[in-house]
Amino acid sequence: MQDQMADKPTLMVGTVPIYGDLILAPMDGITDLPFRGLCRRLGSAMSVTEFINALDVLEHHPRYPKRHAFEPYHRPLSLQLLGDQPEQILQAALQLVPQVQPDIIDINLGCQSKNVVSRGAGAALLKTPETIAAIFRLMRENFSQPITAKIRLGWDEDSLNYLEVAQAIEENGCAMLAVHGRTRNQAFRGQARWEPIRELKQGLTIPVIGNGDVRTVADIERIKSITGCDAVMIGRAAVGNPWIFSRVDRHDVPPQTVHTTILAHLQAMLQFYGERGVIGFRKFLKAYLAHDNIPREALLSLLNSQDPSFIIRWIDDYYDHRA
């Protein structure tokens, strides 16, 4: 993390200063407390929670509190909410915001999951800019925290309405906009388009965050150059390379650093989730080792294990032999 006392903020989200131009993107099932903490320490300029389903809050579902759990050093903390109706999102926020006390409140307008869009939430809201405007108007009237959003370019190629959506949310009090350069129907297929992000940056007065297909340090500089965005949001590429927030490409990370990070991340997962943290860690472990030529059977044996001691011994032996 940067020295926030000495440096001028890179950007302001409302009244919240952000020090740094790289941000970990919120990802369902990925950006939990352990991973957010790891990326924050490595240079992510702020922390955004996994989306919190407004229905879970209103129905007091036991799963949602862990999704917004955080440590003090994670701040600035953005609490991301997901819902399909303005009043529903507001009522969930009225319960949750006093508990969590986030610095920023983010509205999920970009999730492409079928389970989410089938109920009209996430990227499905892009179909109805008037509903989005109502959400922001209601949230702005009820909370002092800056309200932000993450969007896609539109529902599909026939409805690239990102300019209309962005105008609606800025006019109704949005303090920052993150933009993934794909439509909902693209999901993560094809190539992200950065030119629309440039359009938005030129047309809005609020900070614009670029997102999509940023995998390397060179990509960071390229998207900033092409779009003029205020900061860059990195998602899937960070799972196997959290060091990208320190502007280090994966092939430049020393094996010993990977070794110690794997063990520290596993311990953080076990501390946060208990025994089931091993299962949740599998996706991260697979990503950490994706760059190594490990025989398939050996890798499957490692990834299928639920024994933390076995995993630690395996990792220690593997990196000791590489030293």
UniProtKB/TrEMBL annotation:
Entry keyword annotation includes RNA-binding: yes
InterPro entries reported in the protein's UniProt record: Aldolase_TIM, DUS-like_FMN-bd, DUS_fam, tRNA-dHydroUridine_Synthase_C
Its job: Catalyzes the synthesis of 5,6-dihydrouridine (D), a modified base found in the D-loop of most tRNAs, via the reduction of the C5-C6 double bond in target uridines.
Entry superkingdom: Bacteria
Binding residues for FMN: Q80, K150, H180, G235, R236
Gene Ontology MF terms: flavin adenine dinucleotide binding; tRNA binding; tRNA dihydrouridine synthase activity
Keyword terms of this UniProt record: Flavoprotein, FMN, NADP, Nucleotide-binding, Oxidoreductase, RNA-binding, tRNA processing, tRNA-binding
Co-factor requirement: FMN
Catalytic function, reaction form: a 5,6-dihydrouridine in tRNA + NADP(+) = a uridine in tRNA + NADPH + H(+); a 5,6-dihydrouridine in tRNA + NAD(+) = a uridine in tRNA + NADH + H(+)
SUPFAM superfamilies, per the entry: FMN-linked oxidoreductases
Active site: C111
Catalytic class of the enzyme: oxidoreductase
EC number: 1.3.1.-
Protein name from the UniProt record: tRNA-dihydrouridine synthase
Membership in a protein family: Belongs to the dus family.
Residue intervals of the DUS-like FMN-binding domain: 23-291
